[in-house]
Specification:
mainly beta, Thrombin, subunit H, globular
Amino acid sequence: MKKPLVGAFLATLLVGAGAAPAFAVTSQDTAPATGTTSTKAAPTKTATKAKPKVKAVDFAGTVALSNCSGSVVRTPTAKPEDPALVMSNGHCLESGFPAPGEVLVDKPSTRTFKLLDGAAKELGTLKASKLAYGTMTDTDVSLYQLTSTYAQIESQYGVKALELDTARPAQGKAITVVSGYWKKTYSCKADGFAYRLKEGDWTWKDSLRYTSDCKTIGGTSGSPVLDDATRKVVAVNNTGNEDGQECTDNNPCEVDENGKVTVHQGINYGQLTYGMVPCIGAGSKIDLTASGCLLPKA
């Protein structure tokens, strides 16, 4: 796993080790609109409807945890009055790593999250009412239900939740990992998918492998992975092979359908999120029995 960090002290140690936090990096459109003027009448053309412009990837809607990154997320059918959800990793839980096979549902939590705007400025603090879901089995995800609704967050801070994509991302897609902890982005492409990703005692299914440009570090755990073309969440960042070891802690290995093991040193991974969208019902209630829900059951 991309190790959770223990507050500012450990962050300082990382700075000394060469893993210094960077200033906020945002993707912007740099080419201004251009045009020409003419005294001649232009030929008549049939009006064409302009395609809606997708907002560039930035930090709006991401959050910083005490030890990890995360984001305020919603399904396409979520209502403004629904309690908002924050997504991070299962290995970022304040209670520690869930055991293999362990699934946590509707557990008390008063965890807090620092909400960021597009420029990575901290807007305020969001508070959990409970841990709605958490596991490190098959995937590595946590979902906290907040005391605030989506409408309240947007009204108070002017920030909308990030939408969870309902489709599995395609190989070759341009993606960006957005870390609220470090206030830094990592851009690369979806390199492929691991049938099984094994790390220590844990095994994850159908994991997203990044190309080498996404050099994520400790503290980026739980970051949303966004499709650059749509700005929708397609995965949650969680691990990478640091030392080239095989299937050990912090050194995940890929295992294919035939049991063949492959190690990609320096390559990082995220866990796909489309399969949990059907699990989130009305009122942000987690329903593991819902049709199409791929999250493991308790």
